[in-house]
Amino acid sequence: MLERQKQELPSADTVQSPWQVALRPLQDAVDFALDGAQRTVLFWDVMRRRGNQYLDHASQDAPHVLHFNGEVLIDGRMLDRPVNYGLVRIDPPADAPPTDRRARPVVVVDPRAGHGPGIAGFKADSEIGMALKAGHPCYFIGFLPDPVPGQTIEDVAAAEAVFLEAVIARHPEAEGKPFVIGNCQAGWAVLMLAALRPELFGPILVAGSPLSYWAGVHGRNPMRYSGGLLGGSALTALTGDLGGGLFDGAWLVQNFENMNPANTLWSKPYGLYARVDSEEARYLEFERWWGGHVLLNAGEMQWIVDNLFVGNRLSTARIVTGSGEMVDLRNIRSPIVCFCSDGDNITPPQQALGWILDLYADVRDIRAHGQTIVYSVHANAGHLGIFVSAAVARKEYAEFVQNIDFIDCLPPGLYEAVIRPRPDGADPGLGDHIVSFEERTLDDIRAFGCNSPEDDRAFAAAARLSEINLGLYRTMLQPWVRLMTLEPLAAAVRALHPSRLPYEMVNDRTPGAAMLASVAETVREHRRPCASGNPFLAAQERLSDLMETLLNAWRDRRDRTAEEMFFAIYGSQAMQAVLGLCGAAESAARRPAIDPAHERYVRERIDDLRRRIADGGLREAVTRAVLYALGATASADERTFAMIQRLRAQDPEEQTLDVFKEMLREQFFQLLIDEERAVDAIGAMLPSDPATCNAAFETVRQVVGADECDSPERGQRLVRLEVLFRSHQNGPAKAA
């Protein structure tokens, strides 16, 4: 096609007659008109194919968009508490490396947020694809389009616990519990289960997952105001009742589309129209997932809105299960990796990371709970780009999967994962990038932007009004709405939903579809795109840019108005007083109360570590020395852990990853409690053989120097350690 376009343009040596020059604008207009007419036919033919694809997808028993084959191991409908979820074992493709029997399994959970399952394995370069390329056995937790009548969010959590138990049982030789990835809405579901059943989890990655729903910054995060401006969750209850007890996921899809009207109303269809020759396959592939709407039970959606979207109860430990258990994310024992993007307007960094500020007073508080939290913020990926971008998969997800054992062994604290191109001379086996984990404080989280106390009080007022409106609806209107709602009416409302109707309207069942297909085939055979330098084509692009600018301006004005209205209503002291929020200063406080039992446990643990600060042998001494030297820069990259893994493999006394992790944490805490005494005690932990001590120090130097960091303070610490290790020519030192 490009060659044909080049042939249409005159070369520099072509001599044109005056008539040709005069008629060139007319020729350009004719070429553009023909090109536009052909593109119009092809555009509508793609719409026809999209409709056929939609009908075919909807007719399947278990529609999904997974690129990989798999086997259903557990059907959630067969469980004691049946749900529409299932556990699938993913078959590695032929070009994947052999699965390592000792590698921990990877379990990916897709979001049930309006669309069907499979986005985590949408293409070869995806979350699932990266796990398979790294040699991990991989499993997928997906769902059917229709919920089991009566299933609840707690039932889904119980089913996922059964799935994880099955995965663990299938891999008794694996080093570590499963690495679980929760995308978007699946992220909070995974963390809830991890808080209730921490023994089932290895490291957890939550990608684009909203956890602190009130968080955000003024002028940028308008979705957080929606609940308050709609009067709370009474509208959710009404929608579920009009749906005959079902909540149509298409409403959630419509919310996403409304966030970016320029893309929904113009850029997306225009992009197909303007580049229909090359975009058809990619467009149809994406639309197969985007148009695959699913349903939720009305009770499930009501729980989500009341407890999360409006109530914001997850990040403040105020969710209580039906059996009376409190869901407190501080109970999670596994490392938590939060991956988000500054370009995501659905789950901005404030909502992905704000739960850390909600739960913890400082980093010491995080360490006191034995938690390891890692975050990574992409510069510009959109919400869907976090899951579907091949570039993101090859960089971020590849690094997370390759370094999951490293993450599992990180000492408790708060870290940022910083991914850089691989330095010259570094081991090519590490991949194209190097990840380092650098210590951070809560001020680094606050730097992304956080709520003021006044903001929190306004959102608390919206949550309080939501409870009142929901109570009024359930008492006065709900019985009548349910009485008047018939199943045929509910089904008709779903079929006519604005997000579903376009797929239904244009397909092979539509009158004239056969003629459209025939004309489109003829157009493809005689396609004549106009030259890229056609001035009318340039004018078309300028018009498109103008449309995007106008729609974006309207969106910005709409969002500013929504924000102003929200704070005018709920920021009013009169409104807050009416809702009972001005009676106590702490009524909008967010951080959970201190647990005396936990405080007592921490004190006892510190006393025990102090008593045993000189306990241990050569292995503990080397580990403490490495941690002390690395502490000078408060960071370590994957080359350091790769060196540790090589040394572990050479150790004649085999040590499991869990045992190594526990030893590392103990040495870290002893340094944290009393660094000077802990370092001085290294001498008492060493054997009296000088050759062994010299070899041990060389090991320390190897590990510490693996990342090629030239830090003066690190060098000073190595000098101090060398004195301790070399002092054994005259016998071992005594502990202080």
Automatic annotation (TrEMBL):
UniProt-listed PANTHER family: POLY(3-HYDROXYALKANOATE) POLYMERASE SUBUNIT PHAC
Upper lineage: Bacteria, Pseudomonadati, Pseudomonadota, Alphaproteobacteria, Rhodospirillales
SUPFAM superfamilies: alpha/beta-Hydrolases (SSF53474)
Annotated protein name in UniProt: DUF3141 domain-containing protein
InterPro entries: AB_hydrolase_fold, DUF3141, PHA/PHB_synthase
One Pfam entry name: DUF3141
